[in-house]
Amino acid sequence: MNSPSTSPTIPRTTLGGSDLQVSRICLGTMTFGEQVDEATAHAILDRAVDRDINFIDTAEMYAVPARRETYGATETIIGRWLAARPGMRQRIVLATKVAGPSRGMPWVRDGADDLQPAHIAQACDDSLRRLQTDVIDLYQIHWPNRNAAVFGSLYLDPSKDRFYTSIHDQLAALGKLVQAGKVRHIGLSNESPWGLMEFLRLAEQHGLPKVVSVQNPYALVNRAADNGLDEALLRTGVGLLAYSPLGFGSLTGKYDGPGFDPAQPTLGRLARFESMRKQRWARPETLVAARRYNALARAHGLTPTQMALAFCYGNWRVASTIIGVTTADQLDECLAAWGTTLSPELLAAIDAVRWELRDPAQ
User: Fold this and answer.
1) 212-230 residue pLDDT tens
2) For 278-312, what is each residue's pLDDT tens digit?
């Protein structure tokens, strides 16, 4: 692993059609307030800024795994970090998210199953307060406010359609936040090609803010974005924010051994939290695929982490890759992978594995 002084500089890019200049690597913060205590979180944030990272992503529902006791904790930790460092707010691009309809979280808006305009307005005000800032640079809808196949669901079930606040009304609510100066730009997360295009169509039709980014999973074990969303992003100029590039740790090699042992402190969320093992990232099929990719990396003289991150870092689809860490050393390892080039032969071998095993963490 390269030392901080010898690791590459992380370049910046313009996000979508916005005026936001963001680092090509974004610091995700979902671990802050659960796996990572406040002092360590602040140290990681300091290190990230020192290492050219100016893009920080969070959400109202964090920390993860979501619990009543830690709802809003991550934003609060970031807010205290900003308050203790005068001038820091002007150096960073700050993104957060309003949770969509309830997914078993009664502590979020009393478990409301529809994201209404008033909810969006109140959630933004609450995030501004916790973050101790006057403006959010990128405000995102965390998951669709409609019946949609998300978070590992392979198929859309039309029988579950019902009334939800319309996309137009969601956009209008977000537009009011932009007009009020509370939000600079808006984005989506866990969104489909149809959803993105509908948001864009209605924004143009009604003179409402245009979505500048979509934050979706993108990793060797989940390349669903390659099948339709990528063209929508390319043709519209919207940026992809790739999350979980290491497949919740499965693409680091830490789970290449048998099973998940919570007693092993070196293992991550999939071992520590039983609720995490029920998600797509811990499916047996996902682990089989991850082990194939990890072995492929080692055969080409790379660590699994290097290969998995380099696949995202160098991908034309990705505007910025969101990395989540629990230590400053992990942050350094992720940043050191910047500039790693995957040969045409290795990329072909990666595609061959995908052709055989597809996207088990989709």
Assistant:
1) 999 999 999 999 999 999 9
2) 678 889 999 999 999 999 999 999 999 999 999 99
* HSE-CB for 4 with a 13 A CA cutoff: 14
CA angle 301/282/141 to nearest 5° reads 100
* pLDDT tens, position by position, 326-361: 999 999 999 999 999 999 999 999 999 999 999 999
- In whole angstroms, give the CA distance from residue 249 to residue 325: 10
Alpha-carbon distances of 80 from 84, 129, 234, 266, 327, rounded to whole Å: 6, 11, 37, 28, 19
Q: What is the CATH number of the domain that holds 209?
A: 3.20.20.100
Find the catalytic residue in 62, 71, 139, 243: 62
Residue 237 lies in a domain: yes
Residue 169's pLDDT is what? 98
pLDDT higher than 50, residue 271: yes
Distance CA 311, CA 238 (A): 20
Q: Which alpha helices (DSSP H) does 222-343 contain, by range?
A: 229-236, 269-272, 284-299, 304-313, 328-336
Q: Tell me if 24 sits within 8 A of 91, measured CB to CB.
A: no
307 assigned to some structural domain: no
The reply to whether 313 belongs to the active site is no
Q: Is residue 349, in this structure, part of any structural domain at all?
A: no
pLDDT at 274 over 70: no
pTM of the model: 0.95
- Residues linked to residue 32 through DSSP beta bridges, in sequence order: 36
- Residue ranges making up the domain that contains 227: 12-249+315-340
How far, in Å, CA of 349 to CA of 269, rounded?
Answer: 29
Q: Is residue 300 part of a domain?
A: no
Angstrom CA distances, 333 to 7, 53, 244, 287, 314, stand at: 9, 14, 15, 22, 17
Place of tokens 């919207």: 238
Total domains in the chain come to: 1
Q: Pick from 105, 27, 36, 91: which is nearest to 327 by CA?
A: 36
